[in-house]
């Protein structure tokens, strides 16, 4: 937040929006995004004991079923949020008090750009909690830091140099996209390991 606010103030001052409008409008976007993330984290954490218990019991079918349900619910919520952010962002902005002209213009742009890939947030969150549940804390920690630090900070330092204040907003989808690719790679690997463990458990049971 500190990095983002400094960049918004600095590059905003060089644009028609000034330094105050980007700070205020993006602050609303950040707050709304935190609400969405809190809901998604709640769903993911709710599945953690179910996944952990069944993984320890070698009931891998239930592990996969719980994981799939968590993905489905998270994506439904994320897609609904995405549709609101993209097509009716002013309904949210007006809850915080809207103005006219440049403020509304930047607020709408901030929602549409910064949260462009928010449907990926639910996927990444579920994968991160899944890795915790199956005893992979290091991978989970890396994935948790990926969006907010590993990918976000470099993008925030590079993109505004070329895109101005809009570049600060584009750090959101860039970080979300890269974090999604990382989480997808980790999930594919872990699901393959789950299949191996499932076959080994089945072979041991029939032996």
Mind explaining what this structure looks like?
With 207 residues, the chain is mainly alpha-helical. The protein is built from eight helices and no strands. The chain is elongated.
Q: Percent of residues in helical segments?
A: over 70%
Following the backbone from N to C, one meets helices and strands in this order, namely HHHHHHHH
Radius of gyration: 20 Å
How many helical stretches? 8
Per DSSP, what share of the residues sits in E-state strands of 2 or more residues? under 5%
The description of the largest β-sheet is: none
Shape: elongated
Pick out its properties.
mainly alpha, 207 residues, 8 helices
Layout of helices and strands:
Blueprint: H1 2-12, H2 20-56, H3 60-87, H4 89-93, H5 102-114, H6 119-133, H7 137-163, H8 165-206
Compose a concise summary of this entry:
The protein has helices spanning 2-12, 20-56, 60-87, 89-93, 102-114, 119-133, 137-163, 165-206.
């Amino acid at each position: 937040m500190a990095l983002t606010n400094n960049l918004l103030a600095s590059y905003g001052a060089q644009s028609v929006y000034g330094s105050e409008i980007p700070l205020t409008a993006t602050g609303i976007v950040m707050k709304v995004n935190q609400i969405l993330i809190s809901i998604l984290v709640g769903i993911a954490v709710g599945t953690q004991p179910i996944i952990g218990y069944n993984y320890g019991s070698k009931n891998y079918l239930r592990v996969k079923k719980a994981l799939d349900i968590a993905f489905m619910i998270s994506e439904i919520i994320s897609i609904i949020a995405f549709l609101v952010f993209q097509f009716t962002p002013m309904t949210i902005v007006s809850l915080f008090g809207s103005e006219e002209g440049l403020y509304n213009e930047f607020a709408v742009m901030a929602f549409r750009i910064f949260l462009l890939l928010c449907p990926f947030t639910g996927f990444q969150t579920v994968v991160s909690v899944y890795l915790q549940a199956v005893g992979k804390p290091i991978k989970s920690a890396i994935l948790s830091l990926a969006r907010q630090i590993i990918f976000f900070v470099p993008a925030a330092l590079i993109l505004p140099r070329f895109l101005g204040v809009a570049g600060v907003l584009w750090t959101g989808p860039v970080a979300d996209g890269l974090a999604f690719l990382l989480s997808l790679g980790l999930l594919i690997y872990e699901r393959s390991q789950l299949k191996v463990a499932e076959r080994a458990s089945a072979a041991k049971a029939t032996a």
